[in-house]
Amino acid sequence: MPATILMRDDRFDDRPEDLSIRLSAVQKVWNNGAVRKGAILVVLLVVWEVYARHLNNPLLFPTLVDTLTSLWSALMDGTLFARTAASLKVLLIGYGLGVSLAAVLTIVAINTRLGTDLLETLTATFNPLPAIALLPLALIWFGLGIGSLVFVLVHSVLWAVALNTHSGFRSVSQTLRMVGQNYGLTGLRYVSRILVPAAFPTILTGLKIGWAFAWRTLIAAELVFGVSSGQGGLGWYIFENRNVLDIPAVFAGLLTVILIGLLVENVIFKTIERHTIQKWGVQN
Questions:
Q1: What is the radius of gyration, based on Cα positions, of the chain?
Q2: H/E element holding 182?
Q3: Cα 118–104–163 angle (5° rounding)?
Q4: Of 8-12, 42-46, 187-191, 256-260, where does mean pLDDT reach its minimum?
Q5: What domains can you pick out in the chain, each with its CATH number?
Q6: What are phi and psi of 32, to 5 degrees?
Q7: What is the pLDDT of residues 64-84, one digit of tens each?
Q8: φ, ψ of residue 228 in degrees (nearest 5)
Q9: Residue 205 phi/psi, 5° resolution?
Q10: Nearest-angstrom CA–CA distance, 203 and 162
Q11: Which of 256, 257, 235, 239 is nearest to 247 (CA)?
């Protein structure tokens, strides 16, 4: 009987192989979303500076350096801080009222059939209407002041938040609804413990949309009649400097508007998202 010769083939070595991919330091840094977004912003700023220097016309398009110099000057003398505070004060009032009214309408809508019909009818009627188109009426009804600004802000926030919140509630699965009913949850307890956590990704989207609508509506409204209580906001700051042809200051005001928008989106809303929908496992 011929002898059996056993030969080892390294290709079939049953030792576990390290299948993990070792990333370089550069790859690890680049995998950070904040780093990638920061790189995009840096590229945009460089393009801004290069184009402005190529155009060489400060009255049309000032350089980034001139804009930052004007921004720093306005910060040092307190003008920009005061104007920003004035805008944010009105924004918080209008945004808070709009979200509160949207919550009331949505709660009524999910508990009664008539409430659903009311919300759908009001949303279909007023959501297509631009808030800025209500400025003439706001001036007539509330005069030149905070009341007019708050009115247009509530209109810009209310329908977007209510529509997204109602859509989120309607998308909650019947299984979760039955769980709440089996535990005897009704009314506000049913909404807060079952519907809100399950629909919060859609609700948060509505809050983001409402914030964006409110912020740009406020700046546009201030450009038109922005002096309230003797002091205007960022929109009025932009308008005033445009009148005196201080274009770097105009761009400084616009840059401030953008920076506040980025701060709210990437810090405040990201923090809320991290402590809610990601923590609850509703969304990756």
A1: 27
A2: helix 174-182
A3: 60
A4: 8-12
A5: 78-280 (1.10.3720.10)
A6: -80, 120
A7: 999 999 999 989 988 889 889
A8: -130, 130
A9: -60, -45
A10: 9
A11: 239
Q: Which two tokens stand for residue 195?
A: 């519907």
Separation of alpha carbons 210 and 221, rounded Å: 16
Phi first, then psi: what are they for 198, rounded to 5°?
-70, -35
Question: What is residue 75's three-state secondary structure?
Answer: helix
Tokens of 196: 């809100």
The owner of tokens 């184009």 is 51
pLDDT above 80 (res 30) = no
Q: Would you call 216 exposed, middle or buried from its count of C-beta atoms within 10 A (0-12, 13-18, 19+)? A: middle
pTM of the model: 0.80
Question: Is there a contact between 251 and 70 (Cβ–Cβ < 8 Å)?
Answer: yes
Query: What residues pair up with 231 in beta bridges, in sequence order?
Result: 228
Sign (positive or negative) of CA dihedral 247, 131, 133, 146: negative
Helix (H, G, I), strand (E, B) or coil at 228: strand
- Distance linking the first and last C-alpha atoms of the chain: 64
φ/ψ of 173, rounded to 5, equals -65, 155
